[in-house]
Design a protein that fits this description.
Shape: globular
Distance between the termini: 30 Å
Largest sheet: 6 strands, antiparallel
Order of helices and strands: HHEEEEHEEH
Number of helices: 4
Radius of gyration: 17 Å
Strand content: 15-25%
């Protein structure tokens, strides 16, 4: 019964956080006319079309630097400062919920159970490149939406991942190695 409550809490938390849309760290909210869509322009002077250097072998995330013009796996171009990955972890001995949101530029925010900010930071260029590599190798499009079949780990964690328009969920016992690699590349879920 506890596992059912944990899964229900994680799904509810993911649904609530998914509806929140992108946030900006200055607290000013979204610019007028921005509906929070991945392709919405954050300012009138920002272009979302790929630059010639991005399509002609220019620097990419795999070179160690973030490329705001690099296309996502589904062909969309992310908005500058858009969310690269969001991971919610629920459960454990204390039954806590924490969410990590990493933006395309490597900045990250740690959120508590009520989506209140609990910390911020920025990944180094090498850390961001490692995270992008782990996300690419995870191949979210090929993963089942919910992985099952592993052993039950009492007081374990349940994870909900959102990346490139795909959501994937798993618990500790069923976590595919590719998603474990994503977790290893993420900032810590707690400050301690």
């Amino acid at each position: 019964m506890r596992a059912v409550r944990t899964v229900a809490a994680a799904v509810l938390g993911l649904a609530l956080l998914t509806g929140c849309g992108p946030s900006d760290s200055d607290g000013g909210g979204a610019p007028s006319g921005d509906s929070g869509r991945p392709g919405a322009s954050p300012s009138p002077s920002t272009s979302l079309t790929p630059s010639p250097s991005a399509s002609a072998g220019g620097p990419t995330a795999s070179d160690g630097g973030p490329s705001p013009t690099a296309s996502q796996p589904d062909g969309r171009t992310p908005a500058p400062g858009g969310t690269l990955v969001r991971v919610t972890r629920t459960g454990g001995f204390a039954g806590r919920t924490h969410t990590l949101v990493v933006k395309d530029d490597g900045s990250w925010t740690r959120l508590g159970a009520k989506a209140e900010p609990q910390g911020t930071g920025r990944l180094t260029g090498a850390e961001l490149a490692a995270l992008r590599t782990a996300l690419r190798e995870a191949d979210f499009a090929a993963l089942p939406r919910v992985t099952t079949g592993g052993p039950t780990i009492y007081d374990g964690f349940f994870y909900a991942f959102a990346h490139a328009g795909r959501e994937v969920a798993s618990d500790d016992g069923s976590l595919p190695p590719a998603l474990a690699g994503v977790l290893e590349a993420m900032p810590p879920f707690t400050a301690d």
